[in-house]
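Fold this complex.
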Amino acid sequence: MQLFSKNRMWRQHELRSSYDVVIVGAGVHGLAAAYYLGKKHGVRKVALLDKSYLGAGASGRNTAILRSNYRTPEGIPFYDASLKLYEGLSRELDWNLLFSQCGHLTLAHSDSSVTGLRVRAENNQLLGVNSRIIGREEIGNLVPSLNLSESTRYPILAALYHPPGGIIRHDAVVWGLARACDRMGIEIHAFTEVTSIIVENHRAVQVITNRGRVAAGAVLNATAGWATTISRMAGVPLPIVTHPLQACVTEPLKPFLDTVIVSATLHVYLSQTDKGELVIGAEIDPYQSYSMKSTLPTLEQMATYTLELFPQLHGMRILRQWAGICDMTPDFAPIIGTSQEVSNFYMDVGWGTYGFKAAPISGKCIAELIATGKPPGLIQPFSPARFETGNLVGEKAAAAVSH
Amino acid sequence: MREQVGLADLSYRAKFDTKTAPSRPFWPLGRNHFLIVGEPPLSPPSGATDVTSVYAELLLAGPSSTAVLSKLTSLNLSDAALPNLFCAQASLAHAHTIFLREDIGSIPGFRLLISREYAESAWEAIVHAGHEFHLQPFGLGALELLRN
Amino acid sequence: MKFRFHDKTIEAQPGDTVAAALYRSGQRIFSRSFKYHRPRGLLCVSGKCPNCLMNVDGIPNVRTCITPVHEGLRVKAQNAYPSLETDFLSVTQRFDWLMPVGWYYKTFTRPAMWHAVEPAIRKVAGLGEILPSGPREYEHAWMHAHTVVIGGGWAGMQAALAAAERGEQVVLIDDQVALGGQACYRKRMGPRPDAIIARIRAAANIRLLQNSYCFGLYEGNLLGVLQRAPHPGASERLIHLRAQQTVVASGAYEAPIVFPNNDLVGVMLSTGVLRLLHLHRVQAGKRAVVVGKSLQAGEVAEELRDGGIEIVAIVDPDTILKATGSSTVNGIQTRTGHFSCDLVVICGPRIPDNGFVAQAGGRIEWSEPQGAFLPTLPPSNVSAVGDASGEAVANTIAPLPTSKRAFVCLCSDVTSADLCDAVAEGFNHIETLKRYTTATMGPCQGRMCQLSAIGVCARETGRSIGETGMTTSRPPNPGVSLGALAGPKHHPLRRTPMHYAHQDLGVVWLDMGDWQRPRYYTDHLAASEEERVLLEYRAVREAAGLIDVSTLGKLDVRGADSGKLLDKVYTHRFSDLPPGRVRYALMCDEGGIILDDGTVSRISEDRYFVTTTSGNLDFVQQWLEWQICATGWDVHITNVTAGYGAMNLAGPKSRDTLRKLTECDLSSGSFPYMACREAKIKGIPAILLRIGFVGETGWEIHCPAESAEGLWRAILGAGHEFGVRPFGVATQRLLRLEKRHVIVGVDTDALTNPYEADMAWAVKLDKKEFIGKTLLAHAAKDRSRERLVGFVLQSPGVPEDGAAVVVDGQPAGRVTSARYSPAQLAAVGLAWVKTSLAQDGVFIDLRVNGELLKAKVTMKPFYDPEGVRLRQ
Ligand SMILES: Cc1cc2nc3c(=O)[nH]c(=O)nc-3n(C[C@H](O)[C@H](O)[C@H](O)COP(=O)(O)OP(=O)(O)OC[C@H]3O[C@@H](n4cnc5c(N)ncnc54)[C@H](O)[C@@H]3O)c2cc1C
Ligand code: FES
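Structure:
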């Protein structure tokens, strides 16, 4: 029984001189792509290169909210497919990802946000996603601890309720996928930094790292916040800017909040982990930066908004605050596909503040694209070409603070 | 006010915003940006915009005035950073504010120009912050007394 | 002084902390551990360990060992049922073999099983509980200093005095009740430095913040400081302290030694025992074994003897096999024998508290000779002195047995065996080890366990401690309460000049950002919004209505190049606008996406009056200022929003009403639609714009804010005989919808261009150059995207805003606004649809309460499509 075994999760390797696929970035997206390459397509001569420890990027820093109640006809089926994969992933990996489908509530404090939520609810229902608008009474039943008073500055008017949404243990996903990759013979190289990419005849032929150079049949950029730094190495421009995003946790408390709470008006989202800690997330910092230092004003904002929703928490102490970096696209939708400039340079980036939930499906789709050369329908709307044709995805209104 | 701190509403005073340095006393707000504040009636310099109604003017005066303000703004209000007759802009209780330091004799005084729609809520915040210093509202009569 | 501990009354002495008073009263178990519910007693007595957390006055996880007693406090234990002494959940200890490190990842991997057990796991996890508590006041403050010294021990006080003597403004922060640091409770170090303390108090340029702790050093030398009970009216004050120089003098704290049963009640840190003894005159035990290396242990033993505690033995940690006892310690088993005692005093490694240096970007490195992580390359504006710099720290690192019950992390019940297992599984980097085992992630923020965890990791991986390294030091550390971070509850509220007039009229408010606007008016609460809106609607359409539009952004734009600037930022042309005329203004970004709209009126040759939407004013002003940067243009922009009250009088009777108050000729001949004038109304100087958002003859009147309430009342008074009524935003929304006027941000979103919004008329592509031109020229030809259309519902019912447009069962658009239109006697609205459907007479399906209803597309206004009424 694995409970008592002390097997190594993943091994260390020397770098080989060439791989069929080199994946830059061993966050959840890089890992998921490798996992499906190996599992579905039998492509196992794959190296995952990461400049730091596993989960050092946004995959180990996010608030781990999963949901599929997106806004657009492009986004909804995509995220829904991802949620379904997540539902089966603990079993598939034989590793409990602690996915609790505790339900997800997006609060509206103004008529205009009710309208925004209704657009989502309608589209969700038409596309078969469990999601609906609920009123104050039902909100109160679901979250008795929430401040539903009408005399607050921004009273809660309604909410979008999405029962299958919830939270997962982010590190567990990273470790579970890494273990599965390792067992298929895929190599994970931590502390291996890519410093340049050699392109010849519109093909990326070699990847140069601090541990030596490797030849690559295909290169996948899965570096999220660092996406443009890697793409630049291959000479591929990306319409992405990087912003820090911060979050914090309180000391553990006995359970008082059993659903995920998001409020776009108050720029805050909260959930309580199984350990009892309240996890609080903010909106992105307004400036571009690669800094992963947390700041006091953002912490104060998170506290202010949390107390608007749960005034009784005023005495709770914040234990940790941290920042991750997010690769923001103009339309708040990802960029998945082949670059036009370099034919074997693939991208699975533009994950902004919301990419953790999408890892299984984008990994699966990008793996299919790399292995077969054909992009599955689900990712076609997210192709990098849309920035030339102007066919942006209208996800901005829903994704903004919504994770 | 002589001992602690007082707050007055002097919104009636005339204010003009201009981009050419006027020939009379002014407060510099930025490069090519000046503010004239004074007792009405005040004739506007040519090309100036009348902002009398844009800003409410509150006067916070007394030895504890810096202590009160330091609960509401991140601006450094020490004598060294904002000496008498100097001005600065910062947010005060979440409202953008122009701070004009104008002492009354030896008593520190701050004229706070706050966009009018925020003034009432700023007034409330100042009074609240001033509780521990026994802040008192005062009128023009008391101001005259102080001056003399 | 008395306080309540559950149903007991506890006597306290002056200066007591809650924990000291409880200890004196005989309480030994203070908490139950997180996972195994093991009994835990006082350990550090300085707020640095997790052992004394209780609920105090409703607030959970309070460090009782540093919480002063107040009369009438209510104190309760947490995470123990039914009581601290007998906790049913302590049976989990017996099953610890079922819960090796990471057990929860390896079990319940089937979703159904996990869903079944998760609620139970949730229930037993967590620590404190929130109980009702009285109101608390939290404050914020800002401070500036030349030099900040963190820590009021010997080194900190010296540093503060030295800086003060150099004439610098100094702030000295200390978290204790009394200055002096260790000297207050380590009598052997010599007498309390009273002379220095007196000099500090006397120095005019030292500001002393006592009972305050620094929790983070942020970028830009910003220190977060929490001051407890700053004055009787407040419980906590968060101070934002900016300093040019920061001196870290926060000393060193003691950490436990790892051996089996090292967490038994009665095993305490030497500093904890001394603090109890000297600060609270409490003997922690009668017979003590001192565990430590020779010199340090000897000193502590002497001091305890002086305090009347019998010393049974001094024991070298290397020789310890285990502590004995079931819940409370009764002895120490060493290789040489068993020593009975009721107190084990640990002289643990002293950890320099220098995280602030790391937070400031300084390097912290392991020093083998001193057995501590020390700052090596502090940034130029930060320095460490005293124990924090490692000055007098010399640790011989504690041994690390692998046996099971040697607790490394007390907060999370992680043993040394757990850590070894985790490393074997591949979590061999200190950051992954931390995340997998949760060691160092508990309420003490790793103070008690970080060094030992690093030690185990180093040994298991065969690396040195230096190579293993520390985890990143992150503020806030110590933690800070949400209340203190949030500060005083103060919501800025923006009130229009007519605020109180609305109140007198029985307003129902609508929040729009910080603004409060009338939604509608009512004289009795029973009336529904629909009824009231209909009443107001009728008034506007049949007589006239008056609405407060003061929240519109208003910019005064002057100077010779004003027209040039407006031509550049708006899609329409304004340089050729004659004085006395108004024009609709639409603003796009470089991508041709709509940013804002409003009106531009030319008041005189070189003066324009620009209005913006309420929410976008700041943005528009910055955008304009940005566009003139470095152009050298002669333009002066002044935000005069607050300076003007604004109201819109609209309806067939508006001219008759206004005529009673002004000499200005209001006839369409001399004051036509889209004209503007400066005129006096009831003696009040005003700007009048003849525009018509709601589709009737009307004037938007801007007057000095202080006169606006008077003018508002005067117009309503003058209009009384005609049936003029005030109306709110809800009514305005209906009126404008009938006219198919678009509201930016309601009917448009972050991707809308003017062509899609059916506003091609507002874009002058023949203009030489303006922001967005290139992509707008492209968009003018592109018919692939969606389009905003009007619709009339063909059956009863009203779609809600946000309802879906459905084609073949798939979402194919959305309704942005829909209302019942009294003019059409049916629901009308605006919706986004595929361009192919954007034609008069086409039928579309809308989803209304889950049902599909037919609606007919129209590209014309629903009311007065030719705009005759406007121009009358
Ligand atoms: C605070 C926060 C909260 C969030 N909350 C949520 C949420 O609730 N729900 C949700 O779905 N999403 C959330 N997100 C977003 C989500 O975490 C990310 O979109 C997602 O984790 C991205 O995964 P990734 O694998 O693409 O990138 P990452 O996990 O960032 O991995 C990128 C990796 O690339 C490596 N790398 C970078 N440069 C190089 C180089 N030159 N050579 C080698 N390796 C390199 C990095 O070390 C890193 O490990 C949140 C993000 C943050 C920061
Ligand atoms: S002992 Fe507190 S975090 Fe480990």
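The longest strand of chain A covers residues 317-328.
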